[in-house]
Design a protein that fits this description.
Helix content is 42%, strand content 18%. The protein is of the alpha+beta class and 353 residues long. It has two domains: 138 residues, Phosphorylase Kinase, domain 1; 207 residues, Aminoglycoside 3'-phosphotransferase, Chain: A, domain 2, CATH 3.90.1200.10. Helix 4 packs parallel to helix 10, helix 6 runs antiparallel to helix 8 and helix 6 packs across helix 11.
Length: 353
């Protein structure tokens, strides 16, 4: 998620980042009424609907809906339009087409997260038979993005939450596949990202290509290691900018957002995203250790600390490769910029590839 700007309190909200107009308010109100009736299992009429541009955004159009019901109660709802036409123009150019499935995030919320009390409350969705409308309605979480939090203990609490989710879904791959069109982190998936990263590096015709080729010359051994790790339900992009937290005196509530790349694969993939960034090795180790301890040795990726560290290095390298293979054109916002090539080279050296 990234900060967005602009607000329109009128009958429609302009989609400043999207490629198509936002729906009319009356159309949206009817859709939301249908969703809320099903959620509450009774008729609670909407008497007022105010639309605002969301304070945050993903690749897709987001709005904040201020809803007043007939009984006087109020809801603040996040409306996410996952239709291809609502994808931001820059994301159209940058987001790999093969990753797109609008039902993935919808089904992740409705079939996997909501039934288990995980993440933001999902009011429901509306999917049109035409295949052009994929609308998701979620509660507005008054949290802060994790990357804005400096306290290491909060990050460790998020790592514990993540481990508990991974532990819960271990051994349930058949159920996961049956309930949502999740990405599969298999050999083809890993190989595709490596090929894309090398292709894009070659296209630059600079020093990037030989550096990356040197780092990935034995990448098949990394893939073999990844495929040997226990598989579970993944967020897929568990970076700090995609995690909201509410910090209280005695606990931390965790709300990951943007489940567009939800997947099945090694749980350490999500941990690798969480610990990405400019941590010292000691700090990164503390976050990882909190995860390992919460996961439990019987469910972990290995039995020794050295094995766990090596497995995480492999997942961190795959994360770097995936970012390098994301797009020829995509440039992250300044606050999320990172030198993934240097990280990939360093990790390959740590793994002695």
């Amino acid at each position: 998620m990234e900060p967005a700007f602009g607000q329109d309190r009128g009958g429609t909200v302009s989609n400043a980042i999207g490629a198509s107009p936002a729906p009319l308010t009356e159309e949206l109100k009817l859709a939301l009424q249908t969703v809320l009736d099903a959620h509450f299992r009774e008729r609670r009429p909407i008497v007022r609907l105010e639309r605002q541009a969301s304070a945050y955004r993903s690749s897709f159009a987001l709005e904040q809906l201020l809803v007043t019901l007939g009984d006087g109660s109020a809801l603040t709802v996040i409306f996410k339009d996952l239709g291809w036409r609502s994808l931001a123009k820059q994301a159209h150019r940058a987001k790999p087409d093969f990753l797109y499935d609008p039902l993935r995030e919808i089904r992740a919320y409705e079939a996997l997260l909501a039934p288990n009390g995980l993440g933001a409350l999902c009011y429901g969705s509306l999917v049109a038979a035409s295949g052009l409308r994929f609308w998701l309605f979620l509660e507005k979480v008054d949290g802060v993005e994790l990357y804005q939090v400096g306290e290491l203990e909060t990050w460790k609490a998020v790592a514990v939450w993540l481990a508990e989710v991974h532990r819960y879904f271990f051994g349930r791959e058949r159920e996961l596949v049956a309930n949502a069109p999740l990405l599969n982190h298999d050999r083809r998936f890993y190989g595709l990202w490596a090929a894309r990263a090398l292709e894009f590096a070659d296209a630059h015709k600079g020093k990037d290509s030989p550096r990356l080729r040197g780092a990935l010359q034995n990448y098949e051994t990394v893939i073999d290691r990844l495929l040997a790790l226990p598989r579970t339900f993944l967020h897929g992009e568990f970076f700090a900018s995609n995690v909201l937290v509410k910090v209280a005196a005695d606990h931390v509530d965790v709300y990951p957002v943007d489940w567009e790349l939800a997947a099945i694969g090694p749980g350490l993939t999500d941990l690798a995203a969480l610990v990405a960034g400019d941590w010292s090795e000691d700090e990164r180790g503390e976050i990882a250790q909190a995860y390992f301890e919460a996961l439990g040795r019987d469910r972990g990726a290995a039995t020794s600390r050295d094995d766990l560290r090596e497995a995480l290095l492999c997942c961190r390298l795959q994360t770097a490769v995936q970012r390098l293979g994301w797009s020829r054109e995509w440039v992250p916002p300044e606050q999320h910029a990172h030198d993934w090539l240097t990280e990939a080279v360093q990790l390959a050296g740590d793994l002695k590839l």
